[in-house]
Amino acid sequence: MNGIALLFFSSFASICAAIPQFPEQEKEPKFWRDWAQRTLTKALSLQRLNTNIAKNAILFLGDGMGIPTVTAARILKGQMNGFSGEETQLEMDKFPHVALAKTYNTNAQVPDSAGTATAYLCGVKANEGTVGVSAAAVRSQCNTTFGNEVTSILKWAKDAGKSVGIVTTTRVNHATPSAAYAHCVDRDWFSDGEMPPEAIQGGCKDIARQLLENIPNIDVIMGGGRKYMYPKNTPDVEYPNEYKANGTRQDGRRLVDEWKSSKGNQAAHYVWNKNQLLALNPHKVDYLLGLFEPADMQYDLERDKQMDPSLAEMVEVAIKILQKNPKGFYLLVEGGRIDHGHHEGKAKQALHEAVQMDIAVGKAGVLTSEEDTLTVVTADHSHVFTFGGYTLRGNSIFGLAPMQSDVDNKPFTSILYGNGPGFKLSNGERENISTIDYKQNNYLAQSAVPLQMETHGGEDVAVFAKGPLAHLLHGVHEQNYIPHVMAYATCIGQNTEHCKGGYPVPCGASSLTSTLSFPHTQPAAVLALILLLHLHTQQPPRSPHTDPDTAASSLSSY
User: Fold this and answer.
1) The pTM is what?
2) Contact residues for 130 (Cβ-Cβ < 8 A; gap 6+)
């Protein structure tokens, strides 16, 4: 055995001896068997499927939240609360139904956020870079817009008399939210200031303008993007001395003022900071426009907590306003800066954004009922983000692998990127990270290929679902299937004729009961369930260290 190998194994052994790797009770097979039996009992209870009509529907979209990001965020959330992390449950982990969605765009194997947004909001796959138009539209070619527009589930819900809302941590005219209301062949046409003259002359409209004009009565709109609403060089209300925060519009329109004027005597409120938002009485608000930054909202780790609301705070206000409607509501919530953190190679920012979105998922769960609210959590695409290196149980998610490279004899972090800005050479060799602070918020995780911006990943993403007809999200689906399920469950869009007898009935079928009924009249099934319930009541208390519910619930106020 050479010296390097001997040093590695001796160091590894000393680490193992010094750090308890897991709770003592986990050594017992009974611990794992009992936990599995409790899970089985819960799974059996799900056989009585929820076939109610969904009054409300909420879509949580973690932009760039691929499965590796979900796992890493789970560990981070547990570690933020003093646990080892691996055994923690995210709020989305508790959803009973899980599927995979294929994310490719019609013209791209690895997709972008615009084409995917058109899929999971409008129900049709589209080309990369385009929002709210079919695949017949070509990016940046204005004349291909007309006749190729497709509408979204948000519009279907509004047309059905429901209240609707959009909440995002990006600008409100970014790729994800814009597909809910806009028809645009270029996702970057935020205002007319970003549009080429020929597109304006061709009759195409910028996305900020479409936010006001296409669906004029969106009940709640919150996020960033103030500067796209004001004339060019108009100083920002919060950053009057920062040129990059100034207005961008060439047409001279003041869209915020137009929005307020359009609401007449209705209780419409425009807010631009947290204090104004939280001072509102949601029960006395008909319409809300909240624009909290000139462009995207700040990363949560950098957020001014006195001025900028968290995603969970925005979601709470939004739901309280929307749920006043007796016909229900549709709400789109985007944790949009997960994606930005990954693109910048800043894994710590990305994962904290994912945790914040999960906290918002939990808040929505408290404010709604699974009996009448379909909630779906998914991502538009993944990233070339990974973590590995045989790390020990409880290792900091931002920490080092317990070994050095056997090629260059240097340490490496568990988190790495396939490409991105973290590629760095020092004297022709990989940078030695032992000389830098790799746990700081903006550390650029090392990458294999140098790029100014890290890229998306092409693998399937998870779809978590709970509430009425959530079981229709199962197996592996095309991404554009998602809004069709949500519309079917809420009896909107093209599925309005199928709602009979208290639950939706598909075309050509008289009832779902024959395929969805629980075999409660079969004695053997009842006996098995009773036995399992009895077993559940006989289990000793679980250790907080390995109790995922304890780990998750204690973070509810984070």
Assistant:
1) 0.87
2) 114, 115, 118, 137, 138, 139, 184, 185, 186, 187
List residues bridging with 331 in a β-sheet.
58, 165
pLDDT over 90 at 188, yes or no: yes
Give catalytic status of residue 426 as yes or no: no
Percent of the chain at pLDDT exceeding 70: 86
C-alpha distance from residue 108 to each of 342, 357, 431 (Å)? 20, 27, 34
Q: Residue 256: phi, psi to the nearest 5?
A: -65, -45
In the predicted structure, residue 320 carries a pLDDT above the cut 90: yes
CA angle 530–532–538, rounded 5-degree value: 105
Rounded to the nearest angstrom, the gap between the alpha carbon of residue 244 and the centroid of all alpha carbons in its chain is: 28
Q: Which two tokens stand for residue 429?
A: 């060799």
Asked if 444 and 413 touch (Cβ cutoff 8 Å), the reply is: no
Residue in the structure block whose two tokens are 């903006």: 442
Report the distance separating Cα 340 and Cα 338, nearest Å.
6
The predicted pLDDT at position 501 comes to 56
Q: Which of 232, 178, 231 is nearest to 207 (CA)?
A: 178
What is the band of 139 on the pLDDT scale with cuts at 50, 70, 90? very high
Q: What's the average model confidence in pLDDT over 303-324?
A: 97
Phi and psi (nearest 5°) for 328? 95, -170
Q: State the Cα–Cα distance between residues 122 and 529, nearest whole angstrom.
A: 41
Distances in Å between the Cα of 135 and the Cα atoms of 120, 128, 178, 211 are 14, 9, 17, 22
Catalytic residue among 11, 14, 113, 134: 113
Burial pattern 445-461, b for ≥16 Cβ within 10 A else e, equals: bbbeeebeebbbbbbbb
